[in-house]
Amino acid sequence: MLPYNKKLKPFARNLRSNMTNAEKLIWSKIRSRQIGDLHFYRQKNIGNYIVDFYCPKGKLILEIDGGQHYGHDGIKKDRERDQYLQVLGFSVLRFSDIDVLKNIDGVVKRIQEHVNSIL
């Protein structure tokens, strides 16, 4: 069972109810086993983090990053978070929200390629 912080559960629920446009778009492409027959969860609580999308079978985390992720503090926090998730055995794929909105086919192709390489 994955470690998780029970206190984050209401925050995750709120994030699921208030997804960004980029998150909504990628969710429309990965939900219902559209990629490699894999099941994805959205806004999943893992440890002290809430990841955007989580695929248990593929041991894969998808992160859709807005502008706050590209400053010095955001980069540092994301690096620490990714290292924690990798220690748990996950691969982390990060995409900018702009890339998702303007190049959804390329993003889906990259996810599919990654899934094909690990399964």
List keywords for this structure.
119 residues; alpha+beta; Endonuclease, Chain A; four-stranded mixed beta sheet; 47% helix; globular
What this model shows, in words?
It is a single chain. With 119 residues, the protein is of the alpha+beta class. It has a single domain (6-100), classed as Endonuclease, Chain A (3-Layer(aba) Sandwich). The chain has helices at residues 9-17, 21-30, 72-87, 97-102, 104-118, and strands at residues 41-46, 49-55, 60-65, 91-96. It is globular, with a radius of gyration of 14 Å. The two termini are 21 Å apart.
Morphology call? globular
Q: Please, how many helices?
A: 5
Query: How many domains, in number, for the residues?
Result: 1
Supply the CATH class. Alpha Beta
First-to-last CA distance: 21 Å
Which topology does CATH recognise? Endonuclease, Chain A
Return the structural class: alpha+beta
Number-wise, the strands total 4
Write the layout of secondary structure elements.
Blueprint: H1 9-17, H2 21-30, E1 41-46, E2 49-55, E3 60-65, H3 72-87, E4 91-96, H4 97-102, H5 104-118
Parallel strand pairs: 3-4
Antiparallel strand pairs: 1-2, 2-3
Question: How would you briefly describe this protein structure?
Answer:
The protein is of the alpha+beta class and 119 residues long.
